[in-house]
Amino acid sequence: MQDDKIFLRRLGPRDATGSYLRWLKNPAVNKFLEVRFAPPKSLRELRAQIRKSNHDPRMLLLGIFERCRGNHIGNIKLGPINRHHRTAEIGFLIGEKKEWGKGFASRSIRLVCAHAFGELGLVKITAGCYRSNQGSQRALRRAGFRREGRLARQWQSRKGRVDGLIFGKLHPKYHSR
Q1: How far apart are CA 20 and CA 29, in angstroms?
Q2: Are 11 and 63 in contact (CB under 8 A)?
């Protein structure tokens, strides 16, 4: 999957680098990620997590890479995939802070949705984020997602209980219904 700025590919154990591990441990990067509660402690542990994800048929863990330099700048996950209901969730992270605000997240989301709706035959993709996560909300909206709901005091944050927001995107053929 690719566009003119990025390409996505399945992560492998060799992608478990020091930079990737630092993203997962950096409070500024993992502020809204569940991994912040138990980040991998070592490259070995990170490799094991990648392998586990790759062996789960309901998950698709992809790295986000810049096309011009081939740098790994983040990840996007599709899953769990529910084949019966033809739905899945996405989660994403731009780990390289210098790449924040450049549209890489929304580009990645669009590419994954095109794959999910086309190749995988899914009908709906959802994503959740903290209400205070303005970057994720912008990326989701730019990728064509709509806010579908609010989960009152859903998650624990450094500042106490916070609301969660749910976003969704339907396959284009279902928009007219």
Answers
A1: 11
A2: yes
